[in-house]
């Protein structure tokens, strides 16, 4: 399967050979998080009663089929769309441990026109153009993203402790919603040079509506954990409408 995006052919699956990333994971009220993602028809995962997981992530795509670009994502851990409606918190924890939970890509600013067009057309990812200022090297990783002249967020993440083995390969269902359709995409990751720690993030929110939504979740607040990834190879498969 292939797609023609802005006059260029993109073959599936799409490969990212080299990228770096840093992220912060936050505990947020599940009722508020659910109200934010209700438009998708999905259900937030609760890692404990009344609490959901929201992630902020900056990615520097260095070598991949969609070219080099910066990306900022707001994600929520969600139950699989095939999970029974009576799933409990214990069931959610089991799905987290088993890797059968999914990640909803709720917001996805980027700084490349081609990747924006490809992301929206191929997978229904909500990519929009934005302005970035990032630093992915050093002991503290920093990122700032703005849109329409308004700051969305500034995030800094301190390096943690090396994860044994450098990080395990994993597969995740990536959910997206665009133009009235919710889609599920297979997302395979092979990270190396992974470091994690409790806390370790500083976040500042700006005046953009995306920032206002994060404030509804209680941010800025202490992160549950932070992670930096020196190199992240990824493969994105076809999207399926659910």
From TrEMBL:
<dbReference type="InterPro" id="IPR023375">
    <property type="entry name" value="ADC_dom_sf"/>
</dbReference>
<dbReference type="GO" id="GO:0016829">
    <property type="term" value="F:lyase activity"/>
</dbReference>
<dbReference type="Pfam" id="PF06314">
    <property type="entry name" value="ADC"/>
</dbReference>
<protein>
    <recommendedName>
        <fullName>Acetoacetate decarboxylase</fullName>
    </recommendedName>
</protein>
<dbReference type="InterPro" id="IPR010451">
    <property type="entry name" value="Acetoacetate_decarboxylase"/>
</dbReference>
């Amino acid at each position: 399967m292939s797609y023609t995006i802005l006059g260029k052919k993109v073959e599936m699956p799409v490969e990212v050979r080299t990228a770096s990333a840093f992220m912060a994971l936050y505990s947020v009220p599940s009722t508020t998080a659910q109200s934010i993602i209700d438009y998708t028809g999905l259900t937030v995962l609760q890692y404990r009663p009344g609490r959901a997981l929201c992630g902020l992530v900056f990615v520097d795509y260095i070598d991949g089929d969609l070219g080099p670009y910066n990306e900022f994502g707001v994600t929520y851990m969600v139950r699989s769309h095939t999970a029974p409606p009576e799933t409990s918190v214990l069931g959610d924890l089991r799905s987290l441990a088993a890797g059968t939970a999914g990640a909803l890509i709720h917001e996805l600013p980027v700084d490349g026109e081609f990747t924006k067009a490809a992301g929206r057309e191929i997978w229904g990812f909500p990519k929009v153009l934005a302005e970035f200022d990032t630093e992915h090297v050093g002991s503290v990783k920093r990122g700032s993203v703005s849109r329409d002249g308004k700051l969305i967020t500034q995030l800094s993440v301190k390096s943690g402790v090396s994860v044994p083995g450098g990080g395990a390969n994993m597969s995740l269902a990536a959910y997206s919603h665009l133009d009235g359709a919710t889609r599920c995409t297979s997302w395979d990751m092979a990270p190396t040079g992974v470091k994690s720690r409790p806390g370790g993030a500083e976040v500042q929110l700006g005046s953009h509506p995306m920032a206002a939504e994060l404030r509804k979740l209680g941010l800025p607040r202490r992160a549950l954990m932070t992670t930096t990834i020196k190199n992240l190879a990824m493969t994105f498969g076809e999207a399926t409408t659910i």
